[in-house]
Amino acid sequence: MINYVRSITAFRQVQQRFSVCVCIVATICAALCALLPSMLAAPGEPFRYRGGLRNSPNERALNAKQLDAVLAGLRGKAGFLEMRFDENGFLTLGDRTKFSGGSATARALLEAAIKMPHAVDLESHPYSSLVAFARLATPIAYQHFSSGKKIDVFPLEIDFSDLSKLRGDKQALTAFDLGFVILHELGHAALGLRDAAGDPQGLGECEALINRIRRELNLPERQTYIAQTRLAPAATVSQGSTRQAELIFARAVEKQGRMQMEKFNLRWEAATVGPIVDLPAQSLARIRNSKAMTASASGQ
Ligand SMILES: [Zn+2]
Question: Closest Cα partner for 224 from 247, 195, 240, 243?
Answer without folding.
Answer: 247
